[in-house]
Amino acid sequence: QVQLVESGGGLVQTGGSLRLSCAASVRTFSSFTMGWFRQAPGKERKFVATISYGGGATDYLDSVKGRFTISRDNAKNMVYLQMNSLKPEDTAVYYCAAATMGYATSSEYDYDYWGQGTQVTVSS
Description:
Layout: E1 3-7, E2 10-13, E3 18-25, E4 33-39, E5 46-51, E6 58-60, E7 68-73, E8 78-83, E9 92-99, E10 113-114, E11 118-123
């Protein structure tokens, strides 16, 4: 069983930055694909970023490219999402997810484990 715990969310002004963290409790963390998704009020959950098991491949939602960066530290069982130049439309609950396949994927159906989410609110 994999447990994922997100942290780092909060309230920030437009143009500000936040760094989300996700701690994974699994010995084989380095074999998992990791991803970040978000869900705004009244909307479906949407892919934000993904990173392959070794960190060599990443992919992003078009609207966050150049502003968000996903990274991982396999020695610490951690994955991060650095979010810069935040906009009000980035407001959502952000979820960390893990997939056993290993390669980067944007499909939520590929992910086997999910965290509880952390709220990010960007004020205008």
